[in-house]
UniProtKB/TrEMBL annotation:
Belongs to the 2-oxoacid dehydrogenase family. Its cofactor is (R)-lipoate. InterPro entries: 2-oxoA_DH_lipoyl-BS, 2-oxoacid_DH_actylTfrase, Biotin_lipoyl, CAT-like_dom_sf, E2/Pdx1, E3-bd_dom_sf, LAT1, PSBD. It is an enzyme of class 2 (transferase). The keyword Transferase applies. Residues 174-199 are annotated as: Disordered. Binds 1 lipoyl cofactor covalently. GO terms for cellular component: pyruvate dehydrogenase complex. SUPFAM superfamilies: CoA-dependent acyltransferases, Peripheral subunit-binding domain of 2-oxo acid dehydrogenase complex, Single hybrid motif. This is Acetyltransferase component of pyruvate dehydrogenase complex.
Amino acid sequence: MLVHRKSHIFQKPQKSWHQLTKILPTSAKQIDSLRCSPKYTLTPLIGPLKTPSARQNFDNFHKRIDNSRCFQKRVLMPVKILMPALSPTMKEGTLAKWLVSEGEKIEAGQVIAEIETDKATMEFEAVDEGVLGKILIHAKTAGVKVNEPIAILLDDGEGERELEEFLSITDKPTITDNKAETPNEDKIKSNPSSLPCEKQQDRIAATPLARKIASINSIDLSLIGSGSGPNGRIVKNDLLKLLDSAPQVEMPGHYTETSIPISPMRRVIAQRLVESKQNVPHFYLSVTCYLQHLLSAKKKFYDCLETKVTVNDFVIKACAFALDKNPAMNVSWEGEFIRQNQTIDISVAVAIPDGLITPIIFSADKLSLSSISDKVRELVDKAKMGRLQPREFQGGSFTVSNLGMYGIDEFTAIINPPQAAILAVGAARKVPTVSGDAIVVSDVVTLTLSCDHRVIDGALAARFMQSLKKAIEDPVIML
């Protein structure tokens, strides 16, 4: 916002317009010096610019002002702080906590709030410095739309007056043409039934107690007609008689229910899984793997290296091995094309109180088993505390979902678009098997692969499962 033309000018006190034109600066640098000098103040220009030379001098001065970088700085004005979009799928979120208070000075890059997105709780940093003038959305408010104003940022020198003026301007309702929706007053007067229900109820003669009983029981007083009170006034007894005469509905049994608000994360999970099931043609392959050698290697890791690894860590490593052997499985459906992923980034499904999140083990094929184990533990801890960063859970080319710790023998999982496959891991269990002519007890696990048939054919998925089974049953080949 620049100085209004022909209405204001930087003027030195006790200097006439004629004197001022003689000392006009001739460069942007000089204008900057003039602007910042305490000797000059912004005052109304007294008297019209009558002579052509005066008007020409004023215009030249104003052109130099327009080109000055000093006048291109932001004019003091409050700024709205908007709800940020902290993930590609985020449409709304929960303002979990404010970390600054009204009136507190904040710096650019300072964390001012915590936002619960559809994936995790994330920190929100200020992009500009100033003073937090007013909080518009308070902490623990859910369903805040992206780009909705959540606070007002004041600049240095601004106060309550500027804040009130700003709010009065921004809060003014938009004027729209409502003539088509406005009822004709003459028609309303001639036809009382066209009035809203509340207006009709107000015109019915009834005692305040009768109105309250009618409101609680959703009774339309206009249907009662004349009451038993003076001049046909509806009284309490009229309502009680009406309620007593109503047929009683016998309830099948006493029960209670509670409405649970839908969190942003749960809403997005629901939308994505419905989209996946409706649009992605799933097919499934299952295989049972023997765990004798894997469990032996797991014990040696702990005994020799004092490294605690889990069966799931072996499965993640085996998936990376199988994807490397079958790169056509490492793809994503993008609608108009198929993306061939160049790195093997495996997402690991983690259950958290509000839903499910899938942190990523990047370049899993290049990591050792112990590195995968350490990374999984780190990501699981961060996920449960809601401290994952977007780069740690957005993307991935293949997902592993394990419910074995809950004693689930086998299950099928829903693909996480745009990925093309997900592996469901069941519990390690003992089963009787035939070894030669003898029946022995063996440790086994059932793995079920869900595939997107648009990009993965049955034969390709079968070859992947063969490679996966070999790596699980003989882990030496992948270590």
